[in-house]
Write a structure and sequence with these properties.
Blueprint: H1 2-10, E1 15-16, H2 17-28, H3 36-48, E2 52-55, E3 62-63, E4 66-67, E5 70-73, H4 75-85, H5 95-103, H6 110-138, H7 144-174
Antiparallel strand pairs: 1-5, 2-5, 3-4
Length: 210
């Protein structure tokens, strides 16, 4: 999870650790709060695997008089990022991972985005049915506050299902027709079609004589 986020942010520009942590918290703070304790081990691991380079302190890498190591994505790191962004299996549908994948949907292939959205919706629909079933079975055993809390949870799930359905419909509407290259105009002539000859005139708009 953290590996994906770090590689995705470094694909935009090189950053030192302090700046990277700020960007992580800004982009992903809603879903997860990152700390230096988790970030720097991840950066060392990525550097050891040649996914990033760790450049020594420079004038541009100093902040508040302290030296900062600048991390840059390598060609291998770009390949690794592409592989991670191409994954759309069940792990991408879970609560925390889905939020992080969604934050980087702009870098994700359209087919993978749709697969993740549909998987996430299916997962929530299963959860919704379980909550409904639990409310029906245990309604008489809960006090009014506990019931209200469960209703609130159910409403949250239903709201996200509606939101996901809207996103899925938008993704499908934006997808190019199957088998048609996206750069082909709807008015492009079919192969082998005969084009009508260009009209000629006498230069004054009248048809030629003879």
């Amino acid at each position: 999870m953290l590996e994906l986020a770090v590689l995705a942010l470094l694909s935009e520009s090189p950053m030192h650790g302090y700046e990277l942590r700020k960007r992580l918290n800004t982009v992903l703070g809603t879903f997860h709060r990152f700390s230096y304790g988790s970030l720097y081990p991840c950066l060392r691991k990525l550097a050891a695997e040649s996914y990033v380079t760790a450049d020594g302190p420079t004038a541009a890498g100093r902040l508040g008089g302290r030296s900062r190591v600048v991390y840059t994505l390598t060609a291998e790191g770009k390949e690794r990022l592409a592989a991670l962004l191409g994954e759309g299996g069940p792990s991408s549908w879970e609560d925390e991972m889905f939020g992080i994948r969604f934050a980087f949907f702009g870098k994700t292939d359209a087919a993978v985005r749709l697969r993740i959205l549909e998987g996430r919706r299916g997962r929530l629909e299963e959860r919704r049915e379980k909550v409904r079933s639990a409310l029906t079975r245990t309604r008489e055993r809960f006090d009014s506050y506990t019931l209200e809390l469960q209703r609130h949870g159910l409403e949250s799930v239903e709201r996200e299902v509606r939101w996901l359905t809207e996103l899925i419909e938008t993704e499908r509407a934006q997808a190019p027709p199957t088998g048609v290259p996206p750069d082909m105009s709807a008015h492009t002539a079919r192969p082998g079609a005969t084009q009508p000859p260009a009209r000629e005139d006498n230069g004054d708009g009248t048809p030629p004589t003879g």
